[in-house]
Design a protein that fits this description.
With about 240 residues, this protein is α/β, with parallel strands linked by helices. It is built from 7 helices and 7 strands, in the order E-H-E-E-H-E-H-E-H-E-H-H-H-E. The longest helix has 23 residues. Helix 1 packs across helix 7 and helix 3 runs parallel beside helix 4. It has one domain: NAD(P)-binding Rossmann-like Domain (Rossmann fold, 3-Layer(aba) Sandwich). Helix 3 links the parallel strand 4 and strand 5. The chain binds nicotinamide-adenine-dinucleotide. Nicotinamide-adenine-dinucleotide binds next to helix 1, helix 3 and helix 5.
Amino acid sequence: MQEKVIVVSGGASGIGAEVSARLASEGARIVIADLNVARAESHTALTITCDITNPDQCEAVAQAAMNAFGRIDGVVNCAGISKPHDSISLPPADWSRMVDVQLNGAFYFIQACAKRMVDSGGAIVFITSTNAEAAFPRRAAYCCAKAGVAMLTKVLAIEWAEKGIRVNAVGPAYVATEMTKRNIAAGNVNEPQIKARIPLGRLAQPADVADAVSFLLSNKASFITGQSLYVDGGWLAYGYF
Ligand SMILES: NC(=O)c1ccc[n+]([C@@H]2O[C@H](COP(=O)([O-])OP(=O)(O)OC[C@H]3O[C@@H](n4cnc5c(N)ncnc54)[C@H](O)[C@@H]3O)[C@@H](O)[C@H]2O)c1
């Protein structure tokens, strides 16, 4: 990662914060874009307030990275929200916001950065979820949006291969972050039940996800594109009782 310029959405918290810290420790210059930058760590080279559902704000982030460093080598889209709700009574505005952040915003953010990578190439990683593959109740919009990003990963990978841009996704099962803590506190997630469902018997740590992201951004993954790598302790493989 030495001297590479990596733009991270949602980098102020959870998975994005861990990914940013890891890549910075490997020598990268990190640009964080987040709705709430107050918690962004000091290892970042540049921190910008951005709502990824706003294409103009995504453009501004990508341009600010270019103005500061002259290039973008990699992008990690970690911004996201989680708001489980019964589908029967789900307000349309909640459906729209979920799809807007998790699918539309993911595209706007990656597109703005990729425009500045077409001449030099680079690597993109979306954070999806096991919910791109596995259906959970009360998460209709979330599951559909994550499945959409898994397909977007494949489409952009084959479309941008000729530009030297690799596109992959990392899909975690439950990760011990603020998002999961909020879901446990709200009664949306039963921690002992989740641990019992995961063959490796624990939640993912943000560092587990950062390992996979770092690998996919690196030259060790130079012939890997269009893939979703699930960091799930065996969740998706498990099909017994
Ligand atoms: N935590 C888990 O168990 C888990 C599991 C699978 C996938 N994921 C996915 O990983 C990603 C990160 O989740 P996390 O656990 O780190 O959550 P988190 O809540 O700890 O961090 C999310 C970050 O995204 C930012 N953000 C939210 N909406 C934004 C927007 N519109 N524009 C810019 N920034 C925005 C928030 O301010 C926050 O800093 C999400 O896409 C989530 O769906 C999380």
